[in-house]
Amino acid sequence: MSGSKRRATYEDLETVLPNCVGEIVDGELYVSPRPASPHGRAASRLGMLLGRPFDLGNEGPGGWLIIAEPELHLGNDALVPDLAGWRRERMPEMPHTAAFILAPDWVCEVLSPSTAVLDREKKMKAYAREGVSHLWLVEPLQQSLEAYRLEDRRWSQQGHWSGAATVHAEPFEVLPLKLTSLWER
Fold first, then answer.
1. Domain 35-183 sits in CATH 3.90.1570.10
2. What is the pTM of this model?
3. pLDDT value at position 3?
4. Which range among 9-23, 108-122, 152-166 shows the weakest confidence by mean pLDDT?
5. Structure-derived torsion over alpha carbons of residues 46, 160, 120, 183, reported in degrees to the nearest 10
6. How far, in Å, CA of 44 to CA of 102, rounded?
């Protein structure tokens, strides 16, 4: 079998250094450095802004479980999106587990220069294959948000906003999301 690449395994993930993020996508191990501060800030702010009304149900509709950096075991892939959310009707209670095997209803990838190609190409394909209904891509350096909906197993862009825009993006369209709150220093 010369020329064949060995498929990455969960044991390969266990060798990843603690200051890195390891993922298996399409049988290949990807190791990325921990994100820089603009990435972390945008992800944590978005998690707070969505968590209060949708996960906690405070001043909002509730009905979601939103988790930062969950490990997803979907098919042969082990993915770590920046944020993921499950509708409570599909996951009434959060399981006590290290990795989730139920595909989320929504994922958000905050793009970094070192991960943008992986997130936009292979991970988007994996999320579509597994039936994730909604995907957001946040670019802190470009100060933008792209929202996608899965239609007929393909991503359909629902919008692209930037700068100081106020966004009403699926599946959280009832929330007026001010993008500046993601980039504030």
1. yes
2. 0.89
3. 57
4. 9-23
5. -40
6. 23
